[in-house]
Amino acid sequence: MAERPPIHWARLPDDLARAVDELSAATEIALDTEGDSLHHYPERLALVQIGLPHGAVWLVDPLALMDLAPLAPLFADARRTLVVHAGDNDLVHLKRRYDLTFASVFDTAIAARFLGGKALGLDVLLETYLGVALPPSRQKDDWSRRPLDPAQLAYAAADVQHLFALKARLVEELASSGRLAWVEEECAALAAQPAPERPIDPDAYVGVKGARDLPLRGLAVLRELWNLREQLARAADRPPFKVFGEDTLLRVAQTLPRDAATLATIPGVTPRVLGRWGPALLGAVERGLALDDAELPTLPRHPRPVISGAMSRRIEKLRRWRTGATERIGLEPGIVLPNRLITAIAAAAPRTLDELGRVEAVRRWRVETVGAEILAALAAD
Asked: What structural domains and CATH numbers belong to the chain?
Protein backbone atom coordinates (compact mmCIF):
# COMPACT_ATOMS: atom_id res chain seq x y z
CA MET A 1 0.00 0.00 0.00
CA ALA A 2 1.45 3.37 -1.04
CA GLU A 3 2.45 5.66 1.80
CA ARG A 4 0.32 8.77 2.11
CA PRO A 5 2.08 12.10 1.57
CA PRO A 6 2.75 13.85 4.88
CA ILE A 7 0.62 16.63 6.32
CA HIS A 8 2.56 19.18 8.40
CA TRP A 9 1.18 21.83 10.75
CA ALA A 10 2.55 25.35 11.03
CA ARG A 11 1.28 26.67 14.35
CA LEU A 12 4.38 28.44 15.60
CA PRO A 13 6.70 30.97 13.90
CA ASP A 14 9.44 28.33 13.67
CA ASP A 15 7.01 25.93 11.98
CA LEU A 16 6.08 28.61 9.47
CA ALA A 17 9.73 29.32 8.74
CA ARG A 18 10.32 25.62 7.99
CA ALA A 19 7.25 25.58 5.76
CA VAL A 20 8.48 28.57 3.78
CA ASP A 21 11.91 26.97 3.38
CA GLU A 22 10.41 23.79 1.94
CA LEU A 23 7.84 25.54 -0.22
CA SER A 24 10.38 28.00 -1.62
CA ALA A 25 12.19 25.17 -3.38
CA ALA A 26 9.14 24.40 -5.52
CA THR A 27 8.31 26.08 -8.82
CA GLU A 28 4.60 25.38 -8.22
CA ILE A 29 2.58 25.36 -5.03
CA ALA A 30 -1.17 24.96 -4.52
CA LEU A 31 -3.36 27.03 -2.20
CA ASP A 32 -6.76 26.74 -0.56
CA THR A 33 -8.27 28.29 2.55
CA GLU A 34 -11.09 27.52 4.96
CA GLY A 35 -13.14 30.13 6.82
CA ASP A 36 -15.60 29.90 9.67
CA SER A 37 -18.37 32.20 8.41
CA LEU A 38 -21.09 29.63 9.14
CA HIS A 39 -20.13 29.47 12.80
CA HIS A 40 -18.54 32.74 13.92
CA TYR A 41 -18.95 36.48 13.41
CA PRO A 42 -17.08 38.35 12.13
CA GLU A 43 -15.67 35.61 9.93
CA ARG A 44 -12.11 34.52 10.55
CA LEU A 45 -9.64 32.80 8.28
CA ALA A 46 -9.38 29.42 9.99
CA LEU A 47 -6.96 27.42 7.85
CA VAL A 48 -4.53 27.87 4.95
CA GLN A 49 -3.59 24.76 2.98
CA ILE A 50 -0.47 24.89 0.82
CA GLY A 51 0.42 21.85 -1.23
CA LEU A 52 3.59 20.67 -2.94
CA PRO A 53 3.72 18.78 -6.26
CA HIS A 54 4.85 15.54 -4.58
CA GLY A 55 1.72 15.54 -2.41
CA ALA A 56 2.93 16.91 0.90
CA VAL A 57 0.71 19.59 2.47
CA TRP A 58 1.41 22.32 4.96
CA LEU A 59 -1.55 23.39 7.08
CA VAL A 60 -0.92 26.94 8.24
CA ASP A 61 -2.98 27.87 11.30
CA PRO A 62 -3.86 31.59 11.19
CA LEU A 63 -5.70 31.24 14.50
CA ALA A 64 -2.43 30.33 16.21
CA LEU A 65 -0.10 32.54 14.17
CA MET A 66 -0.52 36.28 14.58
CA ASP A 67 1.56 37.07 11.50
CA LEU A 68 1.59 35.39 8.10
CA ALA A 69 4.11 37.85 6.66
CA PRO A 70 6.74 35.09 6.18
CA LEU A 71 4.52 33.77 3.37
CA ALA A 72 4.82 37.06 1.45
CA PRO A 73 8.03 36.25 -0.52
CA LEU A 74 6.58 32.85 -1.38
CA PHE A 75 3.57 34.34 -3.16
CA ALA A 76 5.28 37.44 -4.56
CA ASP A 77 7.94 35.55 -6.55
CA ALA A 78 6.90 35.44 -10.21
CA ARG A 79 9.11 32.40 -10.76
CA ARG A 80 6.72 30.32 -8.67
CA THR A 81 3.17 29.59 -9.86
CA LEU A 82 0.41 29.48 -7.30
CA VAL A 83 -2.30 27.02 -8.35
CA VAL A 84 -5.80 27.64 -6.99
CA HIS A 85 -9.35 26.60 -7.77
CA ALA A 86 -11.94 29.38 -7.84
CA GLY A 87 -9.37 31.26 -5.83
CA ASP A 88 -10.80 34.77 -5.84
CA ASN A 89 -12.10 34.51 -2.25
CA ASP A 90 -8.92 32.81 -1.04
CA LEU A 91 -6.76 35.57 -2.48
CA VAL A 92 -9.08 38.32 -1.20
CA HIS A 93 -8.81 36.99 2.35
CA LEU A 94 -5.03 36.95 2.21
CA LYS A 95 -4.76 40.32 0.50
CA ARG A 96 -7.20 42.06 2.81
CA ARG A 97 -6.17 40.49 6.12
CA TYR A 98 -2.42 40.16 5.64
CA ASP A 99 -1.58 42.56 2.80
CA LEU A 100 -0.11 39.71 0.75
CA THR A 101 0.50 40.11 -2.97
CA PHE A 102 0.52 37.48 -5.69
CA ALA A 103 2.72 37.43 -8.77
CA SER A 104 1.90 34.28 -10.73
CA VAL A 105 -1.46 32.54 -10.34
CA PHE A 106 -3.19 29.77 -12.27
CA ASP A 107 -6.86 29.23 -11.47
CA THR A 108 -8.21 25.86 -12.61
CA ALA A 109 -11.82 27.10 -12.50
CA ILE A 110 -11.01 29.94 -14.91
CA ALA A 111 -9.16 27.48 -17.13
CA ALA A 112 -12.12 25.10 -17.23
CA ARG A 113 -14.48 27.96 -18.15
CA PHE A 114 -12.31 28.80 -21.14
CA LEU A 115 -12.59 25.19 -22.25
CA GLY A 116 -16.37 25.53 -22.29
CA GLY A 117 -17.00 23.90 -18.92
CA LYS A 118 -20.39 24.54 -17.34
CA ALA A 119 -20.02 22.69 -14.02
CA LEU A 120 -16.86 24.09 -12.44
CA GLY A 121 -16.78 22.51 -8.99
CA LEU A 122 -13.44 20.96 -8.10
CA ASP A 123 -15.09 17.58 -7.53
CA VAL A 124 -16.58 17.66 -11.05
CA LEU A 125 -13.33 18.71 -12.73
CA LEU A 126 -11.24 16.11 -10.90
CA GLU A 127 -13.68 13.38 -11.86
CA THR A 128 -13.87 14.60 -15.47
CA TYR A 129 -10.17 15.12 -16.14
CA LEU A 130 -8.44 12.76 -13.71
CA GLY A 131 -11.03 10.22 -12.61
CA VAL A 132 -10.35 11.25 -9.01
CA ALA A 133 -13.06 11.39 -6.35
CA LEU A 134 -12.69 13.88 -3.53
CA PRO A 135 -13.53 12.96 0.09
CA PRO A 136 -17.06 13.90 1.23
CA SER A 137 -17.55 17.64 1.51
CA ARG A 138 -16.81 19.29 4.85
CA GLN A 139 -17.58 22.84 3.76
CA LYS A 140 -20.13 23.31 6.54
CA ASP A 141 -17.72 22.28 9.29
CA ASP A 142 -16.45 24.71 11.90
CA TRP A 143 -12.86 24.92 10.71
CA SER A 144 -11.85 27.00 13.71
CA ARG A 145 -12.26 24.02 16.06
CA ARG A 146 -9.16 22.17 17.10
CA PRO A 147 -8.04 19.50 16.74
CA LEU A 148 -9.26 18.70 13.24
CA ASP A 149 -10.40 15.12 12.88
CA PRO A 150 -8.90 12.70 10.32
CA ALA A 151 -11.76 13.24 7.85
CA GLN A 152 -11.24 17.01 7.99
CA LEU A 153 -7.50 16.61 7.47
CA ALA A 154 -8.08 14.36 4.45
CA TYR A 155 -10.57 16.86 2.98
CA ALA A 156 -8.30 19.86 3.58
CA ALA A 157 -5.32 18.13 2.01
CA ALA A 158 -7.24 16.78 -0.99
CA ASP A 159 -8.30 20.30 -1.96
CA VAL A 160 -4.70 21.10 -2.92
CA GLN A 161 -3.05 17.74 -3.61
CA HIS A 162 -4.72 17.18 -7.00
CA LEU A 163 -4.48 20.72 -8.38
CA PHE A 164 -1.10 20.15 -10.04
CA ALA A 165 -2.29 17.20 -12.15
CA LEU A 166 -5.51 19.05 -12.96
CA LYS A 167 -3.55 22.12 -14.05
CA ALA A 168 -1.35 19.99 -16.31
CA ARG A 169 -4.38 18.50 -18.07
CA LEU A 170 -6.08 21.86 -18.47
CA VAL A 171 -2.92 23.52 -19.79
CA GLU A 172 -2.56 20.73 -22.37
CA GLU A 173 -6.11 21.28 -23.64
CA LEU A 174 -5.83 25.08 -23.53
CA ALA A 175 -2.62 24.98 -25.54
CA SER A 176 -4.27 22.67 -28.06
CA SER A 177 -7.23 25.03 -28.43
CA GLY A 178 -5.07 28.17 -28.62
CA ARG A 179 -6.60 29.62 -25.46
CA LEU A 180 -3.77 29.24 -22.96
CA ALA A 181 -2.70 32.87 -23.31
CA TRP A 182 -6.30 33.95 -22.70
CA VAL A 183 -6.38 32.12 -19.37
CA GLU A 184 -2.94 33.37 -18.38
CA GLU A 185 -4.12 36.95 -18.91
CA GLU A 186 -7.29 36.39 -16.86
CA CYS A 187 -5.27 34.77 -14.07
CA ALA A 188 -2.82 37.68 -14.07
CA ALA A 189 -5.78 40.04 -13.64
CA LEU A 190 -7.04 37.91 -10.73
CA ALA A 191 -3.62 38.07 -9.06
CA ALA A 192 -3.40 41.85 -9.45
CA GLN A 193 -6.98 42.63 -8.44
CA PRO A 194 -6.98 44.85 -5.33
CA ALA A 195 -8.96 43.85 -2.25
CA PRO A 196 -9.66 47.01 -0.25
CA GLU A 197 -11.52 46.84 3.03
CA ARG A 198 -15.27 46.87 2.55
CA PRO A 199 -16.82 49.81 4.36
CA ILE A 200 -19.85 49.20 6.55
CA ASP A 201 -22.96 50.10 4.60
CA PRO A 202 -25.29 52.16 6.82
CA ASP A 203 -28.16 51.43 4.43
CA ALA A 204 -27.69 47.66 4.35
CA TYR A 205 -31.06 47.12 6.03
CA VAL A 206 -32.78 48.51 2.92
CA GLY A 207 -31.61 45.38 1.12
CA VAL A 208 -33.98 43.20 3.16
CA LYS A 209 -36.59 41.82 0.79
CA GLY A 210 -39.75 43.86 1.28
CA ALA A 211 -38.05 46.74 3.08
CA ARG A 212 -38.92 49.25 0.38
CA ASP A 213 -42.62 48.46 0.83
CA LEU A 214 -42.59 49.55 4.48
CA PRO A 215 -43.84 52.95 5.56
CA LEU A 216 -41.05 55.21 6.81
CA ARG A 217 -41.90 54.48 10.45
CA GLY A 218 -41.64 50.76 9.79
CA LEU A 219 -38.40 51.35 7.92
CA ALA A 220 -37.04 53.18 10.98
CA VAL A 221 -37.91 50.18 13.13
CA LEU A 222 -36.25 47.86 10.61
CA ARG A 223 -33.08 49.95 10.83
CA GLU A 224 -33.09 49.63 14.62
CA LEU A 225 -33.67 45.88 14.36
CA TRP A 226 -30.86 45.50 11.82
CA ASN A 227 -28.41 47.35 14.06
CA LEU A 228 -29.55 45.30 17.05
CA ARG A 229 -28.95 42.05 15.21
CA GLU A 230 -25.46 43.21 14.25
CA GLN A 231 -24.65 43.97 17.91
CA LEU A 232 -26.08 40.67 19.14
CA ALA A 233 -24.23 38.69 16.47
CA ARG A 234 -20.90 40.22 17.41
CA ALA A 235 -21.52 39.75 21.12
CA ALA A 236 -22.53 36.11 20.66
CA ASP A 237 -19.87 35.38 17.99
CA ARG A 238 -22.61 33.98 15.78
CA PRO A 239 -23.44 34.79 12.15
CA PRO A 240 -26.34 37.26 12.00
CA PHE A 241 -28.62 34.78 10.22
CA LYS A 242 -28.25 32.45 13.22
CA VAL A 243 -29.47 35.19 15.57
CA PHE A 244 -32.63 35.75 13.54
CA GLY A 245 -33.32 35.86 9.83
CA GLU A 246 -34.07 38.85 7.67
CA ASP A 247 -37.63 37.67 7.13
CA THR A 248 -38.14 37.81 10.91
CA LEU A 249 -36.78 41.36 11.02
CA LEU A 250 -39.22 42.36 8.29
CA ARG A 251 -42.22 40.79 10.03
CA VAL A 252 -41.40 42.57 13.28
CA ALA A 253 -41.09 45.87 11.39
CA GLN A 254 -44.45 45.22 9.73
CA THR A 255 -46.23 44.21 12.95
CA LEU A 256 -44.64 46.78 15.33
CA PRO A 257 -45.28 44.71 18.49
CA ARG A 258 -45.41 46.62 21.76
CA ASP A 259 -45.44 43.63 24.12
CA ALA A 260 -44.05 40.12 24.42
CA ALA A 261 -47.41 38.46 23.73
CA THR A 262 -47.72 40.16 20.34
CA LEU A 263 -44.05 39.57 19.56
CA ALA A 264 -44.52 35.85 20.25
CA THR A 265 -47.13 35.58 17.48
CA ILE A 266 -44.69 36.63 14.77
CA PRO A 267 -43.29 33.75 12.66
CA GLY A 268 -39.60 33.33 13.36
CA VAL A 269 -39.84 34.58 16.94
CA THR A 270 -39.42 31.19 18.56
CA PRO A 271 -39.63 30.66 22.31
CA ARG A 272 -35.83 30.65 22.34
CA VAL A 273 -35.63 33.98 20.48
CA LEU A 274 -38.32 35.44 22.71
CA GLY A 275 -36.63 34.32 25.89
CA ARG A 276 -33.15 35.39 24.91
CA TRP A 277 -33.74 38.53 22.85
CA GLY A 278 -37.40 39.47 23.29
CA PRO A 279 -36.78 42.58 25.45
CA ALA A 280 -34.06 43.76 23.07
CA LEU A 281 -36.38 43.36 20.06
CA LEU A 282 -39.15 45.29 21.78
CA GLY A 283 -36.63 47.96 22.71
CA ALA A 284 -35.61 48.32 19.07
CA VAL A 285 -39.26 48.69 18.07
CA GLU A 286 -39.77 51.40 20.71
CA ARG A 287 -36.69 53.31 19.56
CA GLY A 288 -37.90 53.32 15.98
CA LEU A 289 -41.40 54.44 16.97
CA ALA A 290 -40.05 57.21 19.21
CA LEU A 291 -38.03 58.95 16.47
CA ASP A 292 -39.09 62.40 15.38
CA ASP A 293 -40.30 62.67 11.80
CA ALA A 294 -37.10 64.49 10.88
CA GLU A 295 -35.07 61.48 12.08
CA LEU A 296 -36.89 58.92 9.95
CA PRO A 297 -34.81 57.25 7.25
CA THR A 298 -35.17 58.05 3.61
CA LEU A 299 -34.80 55.40 0.97
CA PRO A 300 -31.46 55.78 -0.79
CA ARG A 301 -31.89 56.48 -4.46
CA HIS A 302 -29.64 55.00 -7.10
CA PRO A 303 -30.90 56.56 -10.30
CA ARG A 304 -29.98 54.74 -13.44
CA PRO A 305 -27.57 56.62 -15.63
CA VAL A 306 -29.14 58.29 -18.61
CA ILE A 307 -28.23 56.36 -21.74
CA SER A 308 -28.40 58.20 -25.02
CA GLY A 309 -30.13 56.74 -28.03
CA ALA A 310 -26.80 56.31 -29.80
CA MET A 311 -25.33 54.39 -26.88
CA SER A 312 -28.42 52.19 -26.64
CA ARG A 313 -28.02 51.29 -30.29
CA ARG A 314 -24.35 50.40 -29.73
CA ILE A 315 -25.33 48.18 -26.79
CA GLU A 316 -27.87 46.38 -28.96
CA LYS A 317 -25.30 45.89 -31.75
CA LEU A 318 -22.81 44.38 -29.31
CA ARG A 319 -25.44 42.06 -27.87
CA ARG A 320 -26.40 40.84 -31.31
CA TRP A 321 -22.74 40.28 -32.16
CA ARG A 322 -22.20 38.40 -28.90
CA THR A 323 -25.05 35.99 -29.65
CA GLY A 324 -23.37 34.82 -32.83
CA ALA A 325 -19.86 34.89 -31.38
CA THR A 326 -20.90 32.80 -28.38
CA GLU A 327 -22.18 30.02 -30.63
CA ARG A 328 -19.15 30.22 -32.91
CA ILE A 329 -16.49 30.30 -30.18
CA GLY A 330 -18.26 27.83 -27.91
CA LEU A 331 -17.94 29.85 -24.69
CA GLU A 332 -20.52 31.37 -22.38
CA PRO A 333 -21.66 34.94 -23.13
CA GLY A 334 -20.17 36.11 -19.84
CA ILE A 335 -16.73 35.10 -21.05
CA VAL A 336 -16.98 36.25 -24.64
CA LEU A 337 -18.20 39.72 -23.63
CA PRO A 338 -19.79 40.22 -20.20
CA ASN A 339 -22.53 42.81 -19.86
CA ARG A 340 -20.32 45.24 -17.95
CA LEU A 341 -17.91 45.29 -20.91
CA ILE A 342 -20.74 45.73 -23.39
CA THR A 343 -21.75 48.86 -21.49
CA ALA A 344 -18.19 50.11 -21.17
CA ILE A 345 -17.40 49.56 -24.86
CA ALA A 346 -20.68 51.16 -25.94
CA ALA A 347 -19.86 54.19 -23.79
CA ALA A 348 -16.35 54.49 -25.20
CA ALA A 349 -17.45 53.95 -28.81
CA PRO A 350 -13.97 52.85 -29.95
CA ARG A 351 -13.06 53.15 -33.62
CA THR A 352 -9.66 51.44 -33.56
CA LEU A 353 -8.16 48.41 -31.86
CA ASP A 354 -5.96 50.70 -29.77
CA GLU A 355 -9.02 52.55 -28.50
CA LEU A 356 -10.78 49.26 -27.79
CA GLY A 357 -7.76 48.01 -25.86
CA ARG A 358 -7.86 51.08 -23.64
CA VAL A 359 -11.34 50.22 -22.36
CA GLU A 360 -10.85 48.93 -18.83
CA ALA A 361 -10.86 45.12 -18.46
CA VAL A 362 -11.32 44.38 -22.17
CA ARG A 363 -8.11 42.33 -22.08
CA ARG A 364 -5.59 41.86 -24.83
CA TRP A 365 -6.91 38.42 -25.83
CA ARG A 366 -10.29 39.89 -26.77
CA VAL A 367 -8.70 42.67 -28.80
CA GLU A 368 -6.51 40.20 -30.69
CA THR A 369 -9.13 37.51 -31.33
CA VAL A 370 -12.44 39.34 -31.74
CA GLY A 371 -11.50 43.02 -31.61
CA ALA A 372 -11.96 43.55 -35.34
CA GLU A 373 -15.37 41.89 -35.18
CA ILE A 374 -16.42 44.13 -32.29
CA LEU A 375 -15.41 47.24 -34.20
CA ALA A 376 -17.22 46.01 -37.30
CA ALA A 377 -20.36 45.35 -35.27
CA LEU A 378 -20.24 48.89 -33.84
CA ALA A 379 -19.74 50.41 -37.29
CA ALA A 380 -22.53 48.45 -38.94
CA ASP A 381 -25.72 50.27 -39.93
From this structure: 7-192 (3.30.420.10), 214-295 (1.10.150.80), 309-379 (1.10.150.80)
